[in-house]
Amino acid sequence: MTTSDPLDDWLSSQPAKVHLHSKQLMEVIREAYPIGVPAFIVKSQTDRLGTSGGYAFHLGTPDDVLRRICSWLLTHGEHEVLSQVVELLWNRHGREDVALAALLLANLQSESEVWVCLADVIGNSSTAEALLLSIEECFRAKHAPPSEEILLEWCSRSAVHAHLALLTHHAHWIRSERSELSTSLKSALQSIPYPDGDSLLARVRDQMLQS
User: For the chain, what are the domain ranges?
Assistant: First the structure.
């Protein structure tokens, strides 16, 4: 006996024309998030997680559901429309939105463009967790790291872009057996702004600079 999958049923029921309009896709995506979410007994916990992470909302949508939604979008969508969806997802500031934007970006853009697109879409304010989601997805999709030239440009662009440079290079540094940083990159990472006190960003900096 076969069983019906609610998420597959929902996505399959959408008309083909929805993939031509980014705003219509955003509505479909938002309605798809709760499909397959665990019982509402966990809702209070996900609310707290969403608040602590700085997100507008956090529905507790499992990662495998987000990946299935991403696969559906990539299978039926057009590059230009999906690029617009990535930007709209970031601007909506939900945890699921940021995670789905990371998945789409990592699988949508070519190797030469993915880091430039990420830097453009994050705007001037994003949490470290949101940046890490995108960075990890880009590396998981086998994208090469950004060049040092791009990292240095980010360091001088804005605080959030400087933090993007720090976290991206740290992710690459861990993967590359902790190779020594160049003098220019060390100086740039030392000079960018950090939160007061013991912060994730300062610990990441110190791990690389003191190794």
Answer: 7-108
The two tokens of residue 116 are 């430039």
Phi–psi pair at 94, nearest 5 degrees: -85, 155
The DSSP annotation for 116-135 comes to HHHHHHSTT---HHHHHHHH
What is the Cβ-side half-sphere exposure of residue 86, based on CA atoms within 13 angstroms? 26
Q: Where are the alpha helices (DSSP H) in 77-147?
A: 79-92, 95-108, 114-121, 128-140
Q: Residue 46 CA to chain centroid, in angstroms? A: 18
Chain segment 158-168, per-residue pLDDT in tens: 999 999 999 99
Contacts of 150 (CB under 8 A, 6+ apart): 115, 116, 119
Q: How crowded is residue 124: how many other Cβ atoms within 10 Å of its Cβ?
A: 9
Task: Check pLDDT > 90 for residue 47.
Answer: no
CA-based angle 99:111:135, to the nearest 5? Answer: 30
pLDDT of residue 58: 55
* Contact predicate 104/74, CB 8 Å: yes
Residues 6+ apart with CB under 8 A from 121: 86, 87, 90, 101, 105
The neighbouring-strand residues paired with 57 are 94
| C-alpha–C-alpha distance, residues 82 and 198, integer Å | 38
Q: Tell me: the pLDDT tens digits for 170-201?
A: 999 999 888 889 999 999 999 999 988 778 99
SS3 label, residue 100: helix
